[in-house]
Amino acid sequence: xxxxxxxxxxxxxxxxxxxxxxxxxxxxxxxxxxxxxxxxxxxxxxxxxxxxxxxxxxxxxxxxxxxxxxxxxxxxxxxxxxxxxxxxxxxxxxxxxxxxxxxxxxxxxxxxxxxxxxxxxxxxxxxxxxxxxxxxxxxxxxxxxxxxxxxxxxxxxxxxxxxxxxxxxxxxxxxxxxxxxxxxxxxxxxx
Length: 191
Prior knowledge:
It is built from nine helices and four strands. It is α/β, with parallel strands linked by helices.
């Protein structure tokens, strides 16, 4: 639990999509944006940052040195990584931002969620990222993204028996074969 009510976040990036993602996913945080450590140091914060997120570049280690000298205090969380990593890393930042509002005993881990709740949380993140990336045709993209691993998993569970897999999936055997070919799902070789 945080002692104070506001979480201050410093985001070092020039990527406007990443800025928007963190602003949407962490509305409880006060987000300060800077393109590099030098510009962040010039802003001279009036409060210590709880989290620092750095989109890595070749000189990220030097930027962290400049930043730590300017900040003086060590933040609770530091994330350094590429754009892809930072897009997936909003979870820990959300937890830090919500730490003063949601005690652990009232929140659920992914393992504790029901299937519908788990899929709902994953879909929400996926839809937000698609929206930020100006994606379109979400439905067919999502159906393919779910259908391929589902078929592969059922084939694995049935040890490659396509008749059993088709029955379990509720598909015609020929439809299953077409989908296996369409998705290029490797079949286990029979010994």
